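User: Need the bound-state model for S-adenosylmethionine:
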Amino acid sequence: MIPDNLYKQTAKYYDYDPRNIVKEDLAFYEMMAEKFKGPILELACGTGRVLLHLVAKGYQMTGVDRSEAMLEVLNEKLAKRSLEQQKRANIVQGSMTDFTFHSPFPLIVIPFRSFQILEEEKDQRSCLQSVYSALDDHGRFILHIFRPKGVLDESWVYPERVQWEVFNSKTNERVIKTDKGVSIDVTKQRLVAEQVYKVTKDDGSYFELPQHISLTYYYEEQIRELLESEGFIIEEIRNGFDMNNPNEGHEMVVICKKKLSYID
Ligand SMILES: C[S@@+](CC[C@H](N)C(=O)[O-])C[C@H]1O[C@@H](n2cnc3c(N)ncnc32)[C@H](O)[C@@H]1O
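Assistant: Bound-state model below.
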């Protein structure tokens, strides 16, 4: 579980991230939305990077996230959208490990590795069970996690490095985000990284906002096993979001459907 105050200080800087990795998945989710239609459920929707993109494309979206600070940023952005878009968004503060909705969703997504935040197997399973119950019998569930490069060991640990750097002309802030691989537990398959936002204001003042992020990593056969044991059939695992080359990249984008005892 994430500590309740994670993202409290840093949520407002989340959308400053200029990297391709936070842009390249949008066309893919749009393609899947076109295929399976809405309403769509996004778990761990954060500041609405994916959710607001799909709302703008005309889809009815429900977003669930645990962090009040991340949802505050989302709601501020939503308030600037048209009334039609606002009506298409249903934002809920809650945990992806335990949720129920009355009507099933034809598409449920957990983008950008958020599932890997879940540490305990019981939480991972509880999340998948909730997804199973909320998914339409003919719908699809998309889970994006990263693909470990080979078998990870202590050599994964790395010194602080710059992840990205931007100057925001609206706020006149220069923000540098660094990350550092602090530790790895190869038994529990957990990685701990320290991320620091280094902010310089236009009056020259400077402050740092550090946060620790801990992620569970999965090898392909493990995530297959976990999903299958919770009743999913894996339709496809793409390596990334390149629309023409699903084998390009170092991600695992798992597309699954429900195993239905009366069909399969
Ligand atoms: C890396 S951000 C991803 C945000 C967004 N999906 C995106 O792709 O930009 C991870 C998000 O997971 C949320 N989160 C972490 N644990 C959660 C939980 N148990 N239930 C719901 N949201 C959770 C955090 O609050 C944060 O907003």
